[in-house]
Specification:
Layout (H helix, E strand, L loop, with lengths): L1 H17 L4 E3 L1 H6 L8 E12 L4 E6 L2 E6 L13 E11 L4 E11 L5 H19 L3
Parallel strand pairs: 1-2, 4-6
Antiparallel strand pairs: 2-3, 2-5, 3-4, 5-6
Length: 136
């Protein structure tokens, strides 16, 4: 029986190694240079302002910046407009409009999150990474 457990562990481990973590980004980061984020795995946070179940599309907004989210991998999609959501997934560039589409694989409601503090934390983390991790 012990031999049967081992392959299962390796399958889960292999799957975990192929799914990249989502880079923390603010929606304004995406708007400034959408091409540089193409095909990247990100974690984006914003207010759900629209959702169309027929097309499996949602829109996140923060500080006037928006991001379209494909929700077809998130079935069911139990969230309501005005919920604060954090989505992790991969970005696709819609070539004709140069807009990004986040193909979300994970979404969670984060209504208790203070977005101003969260944004400051992201900036502090980037400073730390620039100072200590990229100089190695």
């Amino acid at each position: 029986m012990g031999g049967l457990d081992r392959p299962t562990f390796h399958l889960h481990y292999a799957f975990a190694m192929t799914v990249p973590p989502g880079e923390l980004v603010m929606l304004q980061d995406l708007a400034q240079d959408p091409v540089s984020f193409q095909n990247k795995s990100i974690r984006a946070t914003g207010i759900l302002t629209a959702y169309n179940p027929d097309s499996n599309r949602a829109v996140l907004e923060h500080k006037g910046y928006t991001l379209e989210v494909a929700t077809d991998l998130l079935d069911p999609f139990p969230y309501k407009t005005k919920d604060l959501l954090q989505c992790i997934g991969e970005l696709e560039l819609i070539s004709e409009s140069h807009q990004l589409l986040l193909r979300a694989r994970v979404a969670r409601k984060v209504d208790g999150l203070d977005l101003d503090v969260y944004e400051k934390t992201i900036h502090m983390r980037r400073k730390y990474q620039d100072m200590f991790l990229k100089s190695s």
